[in-house]
Amino acid sequence: MSQLQRLVIVESQVKGSIVALSSEQQHYLQRVLRLKNGDRFIALDGKGQTWAAILESDQATLIESIHASSELTVSVTLMLALPKTGFDDVVRQVTELGVSCIVPVISDRTLLNPSGNKLDRWRRIAQEAAEQSERQIVPTILEPLPFKTALDLQADSKYLCAERGSSQHLLNCELGKSVMIAIGCEGGWTAQEIELAIAKQYQPVTLGKRILRAVTAPVTALSLIAGMVESRAASED
Amino acid sequence: MSQLQRLVIVESQVKGSIVALSSEQQHYLQRVLRLKNGDRFIALDGKGQTWAAILESDQATLIESIHASSELTVSVTLMLALPKTGFDDVVRQVTELGVSCIVPVISDRTLLNPSGNKLDRWRRIAQEAAEQSERQIVPTILEPLPFKTALDLQADSKYLCAERGSSQHLLNCELGKSVMIAIGCEGGWTAQEIELAIAKQYQPVTLGKRILRAVTAPVTALSLIAGMVESRAASED
């Protein structure tokens, strides 16, 4: 199936096995991807359901449900203090790596106060990246929250990336069924933020001895978490 | 020392403990970083030696050698089929993550034939990224090689990232003292390239179930290798 193009649809478009395509979706399938009537593509509802579909002009027919999953068996939420630049790339890359939810936070060192347009843009990027990386789920991106508020979000395992130093390496940590990983922006977290997080059961972890930029650290963290989940599953097979 | 600014110098600039600064270096220290005479910075020779240094107008004095190392204890060479775009970002990010050497290769699916200017640019980026990530070593970037030639480079452990499928996960592999990791460009390696690599003792590995873009895969691979080296060292302490 990996050669087929992918399109995210929403539930309200589906009646039985027929999907009413929006004009943007028709344009994308027919003009951008150059599919013709009768050609197949993959339709995803962005919540884990996937179908093989056939294009028929302004609609498509869902012909069979597909069960192969490229999703992580652990739900991973990335809490990220908004960096000055590069957030688009972070959204794209962590989506490729399997993130479930992204929570942009305003930390003491955040300089940016993003507009609503940015949020729409990030959600579009997440959808594109989910399609391209052949995921079944489009990650949720929450509206930016103050760091203190975001600390109340629930997860089985909660980690905060601290700068180098003596913290445990993320690869040596245990992962529950839901994982929260919090990463600072340029300059990292303030001492007060680290204390607040520890009081909320966050464990400080390190990603290695070198200083990673704010746009590299989230990609590294997601690479490690996805690797831990998938390599363990493979070695248990 | 983490607050001090860093500058890469070359051996020929050093006489005893005095470094003759080039006019670009003077500009960088005095104008860009706004250091004044008498201010300290870190000088690196890019080959593993590091000193505390004091700025004195058009020269600097090396006052002491620094032994703290943020380098990986394993030498990692990234062999990367040149992607259509984004190689600058890859060089920057894998340098942050501790790569020792980058070998750009021309593969069957490479569309780009880079100019010599590009090589200079990549080397500048690697130097900047080594300084910013507080490394002692500036990674070597070789001139682009044909894939077949690059396969003859030596390493203890040689891995080739294959698309998903049934290969072993990189995190479940063993690392020797020198590691070579080969990553394809858009579209991955051809079947013939994979066969050639296997004949040269490369083991195909997977980075996970999702399709990673050519610019994300190297960052993921280096994150995993650095994590394997540093988490094992930490758990043996």
UniProtKB/TrEMBL annotation, chains A, B:
E.C. code: 2.1.1.193
Domain of life: Bacteria
Reactions that this protein is recorded to catalyse: uridine(1498) in 16S rRNA + S-adenosyl-L-methionine = N(3)-methyluridine(1498) in 16S rRNA + S-adenosyl-L-homocysteine + H(+)
Subcellular localization(s) per the UniProt record: Cytoplasm
Biological processes, Gene Ontology terms: rRNA base methylation
Matches recorded under InterPro entries: Alpha/beta_knot_MTases (IPR029028), PUA-like_sf (IPR015947), RsmE (IPR006700), RsmE_MTase_dom (IPR046886), RsmE_PUA-like (IPR046887), tRNA_m1G_MTases_N (IPR029026)
Ribosomal RNA small subunit methyltransferase E PUA-like domain mapped to chain residues: 23-57
Domain Ribosomal RNA small subunit methyltransferase E methyltransferase residue range list: 71-225
SUPFAM superfamilies the UniProt entry points to: alpha/beta knot, PUA domain-like
Record flagged with keyword Nucleotide-binding: no
GO molecular function terms noted in the UniProt entry: rRNA (uridine-N3-)-methyltransferase activity
GO cellular component: cytoplasm
Keywords assigned by UniProt, alphabetized: Cytoplasm, Methyltransferase, rRNA processing, S-adenosyl-L-methionine, Transferase
One Pfam family, short name: PUA_4
Transmembrane stretches, start-end: none
Keyword field contains rRNA processing: yes
Role summary: Specifically methylates the N3 position of the uracil ring of uridine 1498 (m3U1498) in 16S rRNA. Acts on the fully assembled 30S ribosomal subunit.
Family: Belongs to the RNA methyltransferase RsmE family.
Name of the protein: Ribosomal RNA small subunit methyltransferase E
Organism for this UniProt entry: Leptolyngbya boryana NIES-2135
